Amino acid sequence: MTTHNTTNRLANEKSPYLLQHAYNPVDWFPWSEEAFDIAKRDNKPIFLSIGYSTCHWCHVMERESFEDEEVAGLLNRDYISIKVDREERPDVDHIYMTVCQALTGQGGWPLTIVMTPDKKPFFAGTYFPKHKRYGRHGLMDLLTQLGSLWRNNPDKVLETGEQIVQEVEKSMLANLNGSISAETLDQAFEIYEQRFDPEYGGFGNKPKFPTSHNLSFLMRYYQRSGNEKALQMVEKTLDSMHRGGMYDHVGYGFSRYSVDEKWLVPHFEKMLYDNALLAWTYIEAYQLTGKKKYAEVAEQIFAYVLRDMTDSEGGFYSAEDADSEGEEGKFYVWSPKEIVEALGDEDGEWYCDLFDITDTGNFEGRGIPNLIHQDLETAASRKGLALHELKERVERCSQQLFAAREKRIHPGKDDKILTSWNGLMIMALAKASKALGNESYLQAAAKAAQFITINLRREDGRLLARYRDGEAAYPGYVDDYAFLVWGLIELYEAAFDIRYLKLAVELNAQMIDLFWDEERGGLYFYGNDGEQLISRNKEIYDGALPSGNSVAAMNLLKLSKLTYDAKLSRIADTQLEAFAGSIERYPAGHSMFLIALDFAYGPTSEIVIAGRKGSDEIAEMLEEVRSGFRPNAITVFVPDGAEGEEVGRLIPLVQDKRAIGGRATAYVCSDFACQSPTTDLEELRELLQPEQE
Fold first, then answer.
1. How many domains, in total, are found in the chain?
2. Domain with 482 in it: what CATH number?
3. pLDDT tens figures, 663-678
4. Residues 590 and 613 placed together within one structural domain of the fold
5. Residue 691: pLDDT band by 50, 70, 90 thresholds?
6. 343 half-sphere exposure, CB direction, 13 A CA radius
7. For residue 52, what are the contacts with CB-CB under 8 A and spacing of at least 6?
8. Rounded distance, CA 198 to CA 223, Å?
9. How many Cβ atoms sit within 10 Å of the Cβ of residue 450?
10. Could you say which of 171, 196, 214 is where a domain stops?
11. Does 678 map to a domain?
């Protein structure tokens, strides 16, 4: 921690990441016109540093360089230094990360950019130590050389910056010519099959990211094709991730990624978006396979989020740090002695044996609890226990270890509330409430939606991106709109409160007004009312997070079906066509977009249940509809009376669909053909069966 006694301009910010740097001797500016105006006035280049509060190497670079008086002196003399929280300003981060990847072939955080006062970059990199070490250039040398270049050859620097901007603009034109079809789904599967790790699950080599939308696509592909290998890849990966150390077996929840191929050693930070997306995928795996273990993992994720990552007013926090007391993972690892002290001799030795806690350790001399070498079923058999008995003992021990761990110094928590990531958690909770019949998940999703509606919308209805400490800021990006609309659609299908669908339709229309490219189709990342940067990009790659364009494609398809809006249907078609070239080049890099394609190519189902709200008959029918894996089904409930008429005005699909003879009635249409309505539960089960084949 810096010993500098005075604050810089970052002390006035809300971002936990910027506040971490408020006592640096570097004369930091937040991203602001003031910073660029001063750079122009003083003819100084910009030193731009982008990161986030739970980033381990961001912390390292701060300790080594930004808390160092010598580095600060050089930066303050020759540069205007700007700090950006990538989670607050993903628009800035996306553009300059693209620059870094174009110039160096790789990216990551901290992201280091040197650019002109006109925001045009001429140098890019990631982490740099203070002095050259292990083949990495030293920051002091780089700053000296780049400063000299700026002073002595400014024309060359400006020319380089202009060339880089032109190349970035070309690369960001994701609207490549190409064609996609149902065969694109087959091509994606073949790539996943080639990259699959049959020993440990996942795709490719280390590091391994969960990227749960890959798995959710493969489940849909399995349902479409009947190819058993697709489901095998899903189950192997889900099982391996949960058994590994990337999963917190004591306090629950997943870390961001694994540094090794076994899922053993995590990068210990926990992100809200990963846990939301993984909960979604584990719930879908439960629906598809009927295996309760997948539902249990999702339930544990929610237990973690609702316990540790939820604001009292209902919003969800962003992340927890990898570091505590200056050490990565210190909060999460154990020695055998610590386990025995917490559990006693008998349980302690038993737990160490089961969860691989040894004297030598598996992470810097200490142990990350994991089940890589034996799953619970195998362990129960080996120890002569029924599986439920073993699980009960594990749960009891975990609770005791959790209580002991709570006494440790906790990693930092980034308590800002992001609209986009909250949209994902609303989606996951709503899906789980349907699949598991858990009312508390529905209540948590509804409370979060209310939080965003109250705190993250301007008076004119414009979504904002970030809330912290009583302040909402930054015009929402396409991810904020797309992810929240996704959450609201799922929330409607969970609660059948028409207000959620109305809001989804309203925000979707606003998204089109703000982000739609009328010339080429597709959605820009930031709105036409936002700060215009060196380029206006469109994101389509589905990485750790799915792209806003991919999620929007799915939303557009669903909303156009629900509302019978011809204009929306045309936009949905254009959205799929706009990125055809990108998808065609590497379909496996666009798994969320493939999920939308799978829906577009069908078959799809529309299920309408009509009857008296709250009746046992309605509950039984909805339970039947929700019990299976039906990702391409749209479900609508039409209550009796005036409320049903209101539903009909928004959703023409339900017009003339009412309860027959006062009994709960189901209307099932699949692949453009409608079946006769039924009031019989067994007949409904038969009507739904084709969707499961």
1. 4
2. 1.50.10.10
3. 999 999 887 788 889 9
4. no
5. very low
6. 25
7. 17, 58, 85, 86, 87, 109, 319, 414
8. 21
9. 13
10. 171
11. yes
